[in-house]
Amino acid sequence: MANRLSSRCDQQRWLSETKSTTPTPPASPSLSSTVPSTPGFTTPSSDSSSSRARKRESAKGKFNLYGDDWEDTVDFAIQSFDQLPHRLFGANQHMIINYELKEALRLMLRQFNAPIVYCFAYGSGVFPQEDASKPITEAEFRAVHPKPPDALVKSQKGSPKMIDFIFGVSHVQHWHSVNMKQHRDHYSGIASLGSGFVSRVQNWGAGVYFHPYIEMNGMLIKYGVTSIDNLVTDLSTWDSLYLAGRLQKPVKILRDHPQVRVANQRNLIAALRTALLLLPPNFTEEELYTAISGMSYLGDPRMSLPTENKSKVDNIVKNNMVHFRRLYAPLIKTLPNVTFTENVRLDDEDWVLNPLANTKLEQDMDPVKRGNMVRRLPSKFRSRLYFRYQKNLSIPKEEFSRMMKEASDEEGASVQRHIGGEFERRIATDDPKQLRQVVRRVIKQTVNWPSTVTSLKGLATGGWGRTLRYLREKFEKWSKGRAQEKARKSAASEAEKEKSE
To answer: Counting Cβ atoms within 10 Å, is residue 8 exposed (0-12), middle (13-18) or buried (19+)?
Structure first.
């Protein structure tokens, strides 16, 4: 309870700072000498000129910059390039955690001489996936984290967990070269073959090189190294969904990068659109966040082995509703085909910070809007979906090649809205059960191979000792989750018996 109150206070502080720092559009130079600087103040002349500008921009002809099918609201108050992008763009990606814990994690990053340009912490070590089952002794906690900061002890309570990180770096081989000189003990025997070989191994699978069970600043951590280019590519195209899938769930960004922030915003909107294809017309927040969280685990070989808790997705969502709402609610408000059925506001702290709230939503099943949604999925993922439906709909190869060319994202320097055609509408209007099966199959196809290769690669990059320790802990998690599932089923069965009696 104390941990939730602390988190709520941190969230409230962010909300108040956001409200107080929201920028006011600068006044027009021609009006600055005659119009008081009152927020929202306008004159009849400014109203009429703004109205004329809007009509001119939306009229057909040379001033029609966006087209009649452009769905986004255009902000005509923007006057200069330094107002782009908005300084709060992507603020939904930044989760609020305990301030002392955040600083402890940032301090840990300073122990690396090799330059880290982007970093996020993720997983149960930062975002609890269950309540502590029982108090543990200090010695038991220190068996995991030898010299933990107080903030970490308070955060993880009676369930100490290794903290997971992803490091985004600019030049992979150079980074490993510097890091091996400083932290040779973080590497297995393959480091003796040089940084060039290590960087080639990193490129196998999802393009991440993991270092598990590393002690830094008294904390037990695991860090994965990837290039910024690889990270941005996966976020933008869903080439493997390995990194994109992790960023579709709440993470704590410790070092941000503008290119990654923009790509991740596209990734989050794509996750929303894909989840909408999997959901019925009416659903709840929890069902939406569960659909999103479960995508990256479809096809993950670990989920088919006794090494992962089968209730993992449910635990992630139910224990992090506030974080998921912060991540996705602002994006839901921007999409034209999904709405909250209740009157909720992003500045309503009683709703935003309520972990028990489970607001209902509805989506527009109009074929045109859903066809547009299919067309705007990430390119690599969308291509796989198209090939699946080519077989299902028995489309001739020549006709399919023509449609693929028309659906290409290569549009030169023009600014065009991606509009779904007949093929996309046929996909969107497929039988809902069939559509869900195909989308899930494509997700599995995307995730399976990179995840399998990365898991096998861990045997070489982590070393046998660390790998066996990792598998042992995963097996313990699975056993615990299985026991919890049996207990839930038993309780449900008892409740049914009582009702029948």
So the answer is: middle
Mean pLDDT of 36-49: 39
The answer to whether residue 368 sits within a structural domain is no
Rounded to whole angstroms, how far apart are CA atoms 302 and 480?
16
Give the residue from 398, 231, 362, 222 showing the smallest Cα distance to 284: 362
179, two tokens = 């890091």
Q: What is the pLDDT of residues 286-335, one digit of tens each?
A: 999 999 999 988 877 777 666 566 678 999 999 999 999 999 999 999 99
Residue 455 lies in a domain: no
Which ranges in 169-225 belong to alpha helices (H)?
172-182, 195-202
Inside any domain, residue 409: no
Task: Specify whether the backbone of 92 is left (phi greater than 0), alpha (psi in -120 to 50) or beta.
Answer: alpha
Distance CA 330, CA 327 (A): 7
Does residue 36 lie in a domain region? Answer: no
Full domain range(s) for residue 111: 92-362
pLDDT band, residue 32 (cuts 50/70/90): very low
Give the integer Cα–Cα distance in Å for 87 and 21: 10
Give the tens place of pLDDT for each residue, 452-471: 898 888 877 877 777 777 77
127 dihedral zone (left: phi>0; alpha: psi -120 to 50; beta) = beta
Alpha-carbon torsion angle 26, 27, 30, 35, nearest 10: -160
Query: Token pair of 200, please?
Result: 């080639």
Min mean pLDDT across 8-17, 377-386, 448-457 is at 8-17
The gap between the terminal CA atoms of the chain, to the nearest Å, is 37
Q: How many domains does the chain have?
A: 1
Interval 68-97 mean pLDDT: 71
- How far is Cα 8 from Cα 36, in angstroms, rounded to an integer? 38
